[in-house]
Amino acid sequence: MRIGEVARQAGVSTRLVRYYEQQDLLAATRGSNGYREYDEDDVARVQHIASLVQSGIATKLVKELLELEDAAAEARPSCPRAVADMLATELVGIEERIACLSRSRDTIRDYLARTEHAAVLSEHAHDLGARSPVE
Amino acid sequence: MRIGEVARQAGVSTRLVRYYEQQDLLAATRGSNGYREYDEDDVARVQHIASLVQSGIATKLVKELLELEDAAAEARPSCPRAVADMLATELVGIEERIACLSRSRDTIRDYLARTEHAAVLSEHAHDLGARSPVE
DNA sequence: CTAAACTTTGACATCAATGTCAAGGTCAAG
DNA sequence: CTTGACCTTGACATTGATGTCAAAGTTTAG
């Protein structure tokens, strides 16, 4: 599949797909004509990247995260102490974001639930499971 | 307390505090000398704003969220259908970010737990409760 | 073959969030 | 009173994530 298709399926612009590649977050094989070629996994990867970036994760960190996932297989990975510290720091940053967003999610949900338009909650029904603890 | 102190306590630059005020996210009383004056609640508000912005929430939306929280008291708020729809849309956006960040959090945790530096997890100990479901 | 739709690279534009610097007022300690 | 630390406003610079446009090659449908 070519760039236009992957962009459409992932819901981003082709510009961004190229940008992600330029930032080393994504690799594409090239056809003999020079066109980038992708598969379904790439669509998922692009979606993942876009989500992370929209969540305020800098592309530099996104790259690290993707590498961690790619290397998820390794049973007992080894990394310099400094890297582990950095990751731990990023981890708390991410945890803080989650807590913060969870709070806002609850705020919106509670608000909507009390308006006369509570119905929109079930329309845009997503995962209206039990309120998860703020973690 | 003045701007330098609130900025220090909230962990942001004074520049940002003024920026937030300019974006109507924050209000300050003014002393007779023209200096902005804040209290502890403002520190919390600034921290909250900064967290939201760092989570990729645009200031325009942050403003909406803060207004919702401020108006949390109203028992049965009324809002135009269009506003409710907009909030519902933002809600799913936020839920997606939470899911995405939760996944990355798990990735980092799992990775660190398998390295020889698993200790950093308890050092930067934060809330190491049971892994919450990805919601 | 031709026209429309796509792709490539590269440059330039934009927008939001921040930093930084300057010129001047305020305040507190010595 | 003077000096250093802090505050004011305002302007300008930067950075990251994007959009947009242009010139040129490619592919595909008719």
TrEMBL record, chains A, B:
Keywords: DNA-binding
InterPro entries per UniProt: DNA-bd_dom_put_sf, MerR-type_HTH_dom, MerR_fam
UniProt keyword Hydrolase, yes or no: no
Span of domain HTH merR-type: 1-68
Gene3D superfamilies for this protein: 1.10.1660.10
PANTHER family per UniProt: MERR FAMILY REGULATORY PROTEIN, REDOX-CYCLING DRUG-SENSING TRANSCRIPTIONAL ACTIVATOR SOXR
Protein name: MerR family transcriptional regulator
